[in-house]
Hints:
Shape: rod-shaped
Pfam family, one: Tetraspanin
Keywords: Membrane, Transmembrane, Transmembrane helix
Distance between the termini: 94 Å
GO biological process, one term: visual perception
Order of helices and strands: EHHHHHHHEH
Strand content: under 5%
Largest sheet: 2 strands, antiparallel
Membrane topology: Multi-pass membrane protein
Strand order of the largest sheet: 1-2
Helix content: 40-55%
Number of helices: 8
Protein name: Photoreceptor outer segment membrane glycoprotein 2-like
Amino acid sequence: MAVLRVKFTKTKRDKLAQVLWILNWVSVVTGAILFSLGLFLKVEINRREELMAEGAIQYVPNMLIAVGLIACVINFLGGKICYDCVDTTKFLRWKLIMLPYIIFTFFFTFCVLVGALMCYSMRGELEDSLNVGLTQAMRFYKDTDIPGRCFLKRTVDLLQIEFHCCGNNDYKDWFQIQWISNRYLDRSRKEVLDRLRSNVEGKYLMDRVPFSCCNINSPRPCIQHQITNNSAHFNYEHQTEELNLWMKGCRQALLDYYTHITHSIGLTVLIAWLFELSVLTGVRYLQTSLENVLKHGDPNSESDGWLLENSFIETARTNLNIIKSLGKSNQIDTANNRDPNINVSSTSKAHYGPDNVPPKQIPEDS
């Protein structure tokens, strides 16, 4: 029994083909949008790639770019097919191509769905990537005289100013690393030497933060030195007073930023998937109805269209039997590592001539 059988007249088939032609061209535009979104996400990630683990999440924009390009090609071909299917005679040139086209498009729509789900599931990997990248960038913040790292100070400062954040998790992360270069430390001063010697790794650690951590909205002048020393500042209690520093960590700020982008893109891709699925359903109905018209022999007659000729269970069983038969036909008996032709029985004997014939006498030379 066919699944979702629908009866089509000649007029309905022509209208279906015309509508699908328009929808396929709309899908070409949708594919271009997916390509643009993937390109946009790739650019946004590359803008701050020095703050992330190398190549951690590039597969998501690459997937969207590939899906967008394939969507343009598939739907362009689909538009051409549907345009020709208005004329039953022109359908003959596409008859053998339409079923492989539908199967390929079905798997492609599955890839579109995977792309949408990837946009929603990349948050965990993005967070790990940012955690590694930001920690490394903060550690190299002081290396302004080392090639390949000299730009990181500017990058981190601009990041904290733009996203109103400080540190990786919060401003206290700056207390645990040396972010002032040794070039700017006066080693002739006793307090500097004492601070260096007090640390096991010989780092110059202090309760300070870079200027970019200062909250520009605070009415009080920025306190970025001796943050935990209450006596160093007038009318100041760092444990109870709200600091005039950015309280949010940069990892959370960037995570929220990219999550908003990926979720918006994921919603767009999900809508595109539903649209592609509806177009594919229409093409399947058009293909089956036109094939039934050819069976009837009358191009103006009514015909049935369906998604599956048999039920889901019967279709699955048929396909499974086809796969099994293909496996059996290619199977070769190689038991005991012998030639498979050895066990082939023969029903006839080779004929070498009549039996009981005396050997021919060879005359001796005199």
